[in-house]
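Question: Now follow the chain.
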Amino acid sequence: MLKSRFHTVQRRNLRAIKEILETRFHAGHGEPERRLVFSLVAAAFASRIGCPDSIPAAAIDQSQDPFTLILEWLKSCDRRFGLALFYCSNFEALRLPAVAVAPLTHDCIALGSKLSIEGLSFLFEKFVHAGLHNKNGVFYTPIRLAAAIARDAIKAARIHRAPEAALRILDPACGAGVFLLEAYKQAIIDAGGTLQTSRAQRVQILTSSIFGVDRDRDSVEMTKLALLLYIFKEEQLAFFGEIDSELPDLSSNIKQGNSLISESQLDLMGEQEEAFEFEPFEWAVHFPQVFAAGGFDVIIGNPPYGLSRDNQIGSAENVRLKQIFVGERSGKLNKYLAFMVKGYRLLNSRGVLSFVVPNSWLGIDGGSAVRKLFLSERTLQCVTLFDSPVFDEPSVEAVTFRVEKGVRADHIEVYRSISLEHGKTELINKIPVEECLKHAGAAIPLAWTNDTSALMEYLNERSIPLAIHPAGFVPMIALQAYAAGKGSPPQSPRASKERIFHTNIREDHSCIPYLEGADIQRYSVHWSGGFLRYGPWLAEPQSLERFSGPRVLIREILHPCPYVMIAAYADKPLLYNKSVLHVLAAGQADADEMLSLCAIFNSKLASFVIKYAGRKSQRRLFPKIVNGDLKDFPLAKAFSSYVPALAQLSRSMLEVAAANSGPDAESAEIQNKIDVLVYEIYALKNSQVETLERVLTNR
């Protein structure tokens, strides 16, 4: 996680609000209790920075009915801000005893006194909406990252506009308003760097420049609150005059709805009855002034990363989204890719789009249509990488990108973030757009150089993709043992958690030896002794024929250079899951051919190919090889002529592995012979070998 002082402080506040919940509702708590605690903290914070609807602590202590008093306080806060956020009708059922109200309120007031506006948004995302994040593929954006994206996007948009021109800025999945708050801070500084100091100017900028949409009603209200609170911010009170002056109405700026689906699209599909379920949003109707001018000038944000396979997109909605984005998707729908396309469509002819998204979009098959869109129109200006995780969730490695319509980009600038805290980046590469368009699926190779590009072209000229090579290899994904609702009978959610079909003993004939990922080692398998009960109860069992006979197994997670692939030869009945890929024979399996292919996969040349052209191999965290990489792997046209020699070297490695517990001088010598022979198969020159090995050692 990209740590900062802000992050440290807010983590402490998050622990504090959780402690309030646990301490004051120790008998049990749910969503109403959690929401009440947040509302009291938010009301206390709003009172501290200028909202006049405060409640004296003494009044709570002296009241005969303090619970009703605090509910009235929350209602008054909603009235003051014109929101439906502080008070919830389900609070009424709590009816806290008087003895419990005072300590709860005092705790919340104490915490509210320590917060910032950004900190309040953090608590909303991490405390109120904590359970929705993984469910919907939503991740909280660090404030420094949101600030950097907003600053750079607005700066880019202003370059080609008159200094006095107002920008229309959108976050189409605004959440708690983190991006819009940072955008507003930038918007009130004019193109010349002058801070707008009058209240009238600031309100005018807010109501004419800042726009947001979110599917969650509470998020819409929280975004409005964050923006309105900024007007009350203590250090700005001198500019604003009386703190009880009328607040702007943001109901025309921040709206609830589904950014990806419009009513007109449902009408065209004859699905009007689904309008309520999908919460469609008609952009031109809700923001007529924006689209009268051609669209938004700046679109920023952190869109949901929901996947249909993880049930983060409902089945009915998934069908509709596939229809709507049929021309911009490949295979399963990734919601963030749909947001990238939608954002691009909502821009005017000189608009700027900048999101933080998973870095896998640079290479995965599902992102090919989006990449081709940006690349063919020459609008992708830059990509920024991060050495450390951006989010708390370790499974997501993110990048930022910036697209600018009306500004031709023949090269993509690749930056590395040096210090998010101070907004420092360094330019590490410039990738020709034409180079990307030559790649399968228009993948964007972050490690591109003239030498690596030339070497890859050379290899491709002397090769045939593995999936169509005359040798007859079939790369495949292995079985999936667990998935709620799949299998016969359908699996329960606990099946995967408890691994109910795994066992350490062979209970009956259905129990077949099972390989964990770590059991796959270079050239050979080292079975750890587990079994899997095979049958229709598995989520995706597949035919047992695929798990017997000569084949090559490849671990999904890549190893560090210089040997990134871990491939093993197997010919016995062994089961394994999707974390292991395998290459089968199209016809009668030939052991020597499989052993030879295993040797090539374990070579330095294969490492270079996967590191350079792999769809998910450029990740810093959990780099992977996917089945598409195997299908596209350039297998030398001369492969068959070298099968006897390669197979013999593979057998030698198997013998050494059987006799030793780990790598030794003998295995290193054999591996060197394999590398040299593979270079010969592909007819590499000495200079090309030097380039390849330099890439693998980062020299």
Observations:
- Confidence is low (pLDDT under 50) at residues 234-242.
